[in-house]
Design brief:
Layout lengths: L1 H10 L10 E5 L9 H10 L4 E4 L4 H6 L6 E6 L1 H7 L3 H13 L6 E9 L1 H4 L4 H17 L7 E7 L3 E2 L8 E2 L4 H13 L4 E4 L2 H7 L6 H4 L10 E2 L6 E2 L2 H15 L7 E6 L14 H16 L14 E3 L48 E4 L5 H12 L21 H15 L13 E4 L33 H4 L12 H15 L1
Parallel strand pairs: 1-2, 1-12, 2-3, 3-4, 4-5, 5-8, 8-11, 11-12
Antiparallel strand pairs: 6-7, 9-10, 13-14
Helix pairs in contact: 5-7, 7-8, 13-14, 13-16
Bound molecules: 2-acetamido-2-deoxy-beta-D-glucopyranose (9 copies).
The site of one 2-acetamido-2-deoxy-beta-D-glucopyranose has 2 residues, from loops.
Length: 497
């Protein structure tokens, strides 16, 4: 009883009475920025219901009216000093930028400045009073319960962030953080935090494993354990969010929820950023979205929503800095996805979850021996009907391990209905959106006109196809792997018996 009571106490923290959402940041650093109507059309098509703007652009807020989309507007850093001078300047800003748009535009929060403590420390002394001025103006219009006021922080203000239980905010900022947290607590607002496992990983000099940053499954003995709390951390994101909870409780604030205002992964980088790849960006964002929408919470507060805005909607070619800076987007300026998120089973936010339009192919860099072994497995125990790879059949040419394996992998991936892990094959396979079909060889899932195989039924293993399934003629190499092949065939035939 006692320990149950303790547990209840522990988890009675921020109530989990609402579901976490996924939103998207709408940056405007594009040389050919789509107009607000086009932006909103993309948001609607992708079923994105939460956005964060970096300003309070009038045309954008008008375009968002009557869409049902929830909007976080921002006071840009360069307007902070002007707006934050007094109740009057803040009230004036609220009048023109908020009152002018609600309720048609559903503004749910105001993010006052971005990473002020680290990016614009000169403005730090007025930060809390500015939040209070803006809040006062909202109170005066009876909008304070609907619109929350906060300010987005860089996670770099959290020091000693691992183990999370020992984390604390840089003490230099106590004079700002203590009144800020007090304000957030008394107004039922939340801590806004930017969480970038990409940078944590990059700066860690390989101390942080890539898999840990990308939410990929870790070998249990590689999981990070907080020795004080014995909580297990399976990803950097959770560890950073928990570090923020602990840093707040270190200052005696234990009931302020967290919203992650920015998180993401770049899909392209220069030679010093080898992990800024499409694959990694897709893996990170897909896993992040699934993690958030699942209401998984963190080890410290399981089930407590940590809503998150992806950084960000568009690739921004006019952002200065390294190549990766320009490549955090989910879409290009035309609204074409940079990559197709893998969101099976996580609901319908981001409708570019066209998982059904993906294919499983051999990785360019894969070791061919491993590819051959995986091919053997797919055509054997994996129960893929590899008869189209036989000599004289449509997918025999080009007659090579990689081409044949791609066909087998893709068939398996579709047979398994795209489930997680069904396009891996010990790391030699990867998901693509490019249809690998060629000539008369039509791949499962192909949307081509030649859709013989499109609905998969043709390729589903048939109990009548014993002969071709257990034939080894599609195997183009009969070398030292023969044993493995034979083992696979034996298994395959045993299963058919
Ligand atoms: C700002 O306005 C609020 C509410 O009207 C008031 O309580 C507060 O004292 C004012 N602050 C200043 C600095 O005038
Ligand atoms: C704005 O969003 C909130 C939260 O979903 C909802 O309760 C409210 O009705 C919305 N307001 C309008 C005007 O759509
Ligand atoms: C803490 O913040 C101060 C003031 O910005 C800064 O000078 C110092 O480097 C920070 N400490 C660490 C460890 O980041
Ligand atoms: C937090 O609360 C404890 C117990 O009331 C107190 O001893 C401590 O000084 C407080 N810490 C801060 C930073 O206020
Ligand atoms: C979803 O949440 C459950 C528990 O609530 C957890 O076991 C599972 O691992 C979570 N899945 C993801 C993808 O986070
Ligand atoms: C994707 O395929 C699954 C199962 O084959 C189906 O239930 C789902 O409706 C498809 N989704 C789309 C967007 O076609
Ligand atoms: C598929 O394409 C090939 C040539 O491209 C053609 O000969 C064949 O008839 C097509 N099959 C179907 C079902 O359209
Ligand atoms: C599969 O394809 C066949 C032949 O084109 C068609 O008759 C059947 O309706 C399709 N099944 C589904 C589920 O699309
Ligand atoms: C297996 O073959 C028999 C005889 O040709 C046929 O009647 C039956 O429908 C086939 N079964 C399947 C699953 O294709």
């Amino acid at each position: 009883m006692d320990s149950l009571f303790l547990l209840l106490l522990l988890f009675s923290f921020v109530s989990a009475d609402h579901d976490a959402f996924i939103g998207v940041n709408v940056g405007t650093g594009l040389s050919d920025m789509p107009n607000p109507t086009q932006v909103v059309a993309l948001l609607k098509a992708q079923q994105i219901r939460n956005v964060r703007l970096y300003d309070s652009d009038r045309a954008m807020l008008l375009a968002l009216a009557n869409t049902g989309i929830h909007v976080t507007v921002s006071v840009p850093n360069d307007q902070l000093l002007g707006i934050g001078q007094s109740n009057a300047t803040a009230a004036n800003w609220v009048f023109h930028n908020i009152l002018a748009h609600v309720p048609a535009t559903n503004i749910t929060s105001i993010s006052v400045g971005s990473e002020i403590l680290t990016a614009l420390p000169n403005a730090a002394p007025i930060l809390v009073s500015e939040l209070k001025f803006i809040h006062s103006a909202l109170v005066a219009s009876n909008l304070d319960s609907q619109i929350k006021v906060s300010t987005a922080h860089s996670s770099s203000i959290i020091l000693d962030s691992f183990p999370p239980s020992q984390a604390f905010f840089n003490r230099s900022w106590d004079p700002v953080m203590v009144p800020l947290l007090s304000f957030l607590q008394s107004t039922d607002s939340y801590l806004m935090l930017n969480v970038y496992p990409y940078y944590d990983y990059m700066r860690s000099n390989n101390v942080i494993p890539l898999d840990y940053a990308l939410f990929r499954p870790l070998n249990p003995n590689k999981e990070a354990v907080d020795s004080n709390t014995l909580l297990h951390y399976t990803n950097v994101f959770d560890a950073v969010v928990d570090a923020a909870y602990f840093a707040m409780s270190y200052l005696n604030f234990t009931n302020i929820p967290i919203i992650v205002t920015e998180s993401g992964w770049p899909s392209k980088g220069d030679s010093s950023e080898p992990d800024a790849t499409i694959d990694n960006a897709n893996t990170y964002n897909s896993n992040l979205i699934r993690h958030v929408l699942n209401n998984t919470g963190t080890p410290k507060h399981p089930g407590v929503a940590v809503s998150t805005y992806i950084y960000e909607l568009y690739n921004e070619d006019s952002i200065p800095g390294s190549l990766s800076e320009k490549n955090w987007g989910l879409f290009d300026a035309n609204g074409v996805p940079i990559y197709i998120l893998l969101l099976t089973g996580s609901g319908n936010v981001l409708a570019d979850d066209t998982t059904n339009q993906t294919y499983c192919v051999v990785r360019d860099t894969a070791d061919l021996k491993m590819v051959q072994a995986a091919l053997d497995w797919a055509c054997g125990p994996g129960k893929v009907d590899c008869s189209p790879l036989l000599q004289g059949k449509p997918c025999y040419e080009p007659n090579g391990v990689a081409a044949h394996a791609t066909y087998a992998f893709d068939t398996y991936y579709h047979q398994m209905a795209f489930t997680e892990g069904s396009c891996d094959f010990n790391g030699v396979a990867t998901v693509t959106t490019t249809d690998p079909s060629h000539g008369t060889c039509v791949f499962p899932g192909s949307r081509g006109r030649n859709n013989t195989f499109i609905n998969g039924t043709v390729l589903a293993p048939s109990s009548n196809s014993t002969t071709s399934k257990c034939s080894s003629r599609y195997l183009n190499r009969a070398d030292n792997l023969l044993k493995l092949v034979m083992a696979g065939i034996a298994l395959c035939c045993a299963m058919l018996l």
